[in-house]
Fold this protein.
Amino acid sequence: MISSSLGVLRCVSLKFFVGYNAYVAIMKFVADTMLGNLARWLRILGYDTLYSSSFEDWRLLRVAEEEKRILLTKDESLFRRARTRGLSALLITSDDIAEMLAYVAAKTGAELSFNPSRTRCPECNTLLMKISKAEALSLLGGELITKYDEFWRCGKCGKIYWQGNHWRTINSILEKANKLIINFSSKF
């Protein structure tokens, strides 16, 4: 048992045809090796985000192109190569997670809010399934069940998630990021 507590885009015109919420729901990312933390956050927020510490630049470019993913990178050279190839890409310059999230949201329209029906495993990117307290009890034991009401399980890696004490920090970072979106939006 494994457990854990928890440039301008080519596709912008798609918003007009499918509606804003549908556009946000189909938005997919691929993150370079320096952005593992950002990838995990985007997954928690429900965005299909590919990440591996072993992805080489050529593979990131191929995945972005073949799967129509937005490339997130801290590498200016990789960013330029992606843009030269006509790929959607964002150059991330901050090391602060709230600033990174705000920048991605300002440039793509991504929503920075937790939606339990679309959250993904921060480790493997699989959609999480909500499980009952009884199932969580059988997997985790009794103490957590008395403290928390909602639990999610990853069908691929088997990890169990809940909104533990760390959730205050998560909410604080999301609140900060949502306030920063206005600053980033006004600069572009």
The longest helix spans residues 167-187. Residues 1-23 have pLDDT under 50 and may be disordered. The two ends are 47 Å apart (CA to CA). The chain has nine helices and seven strands.
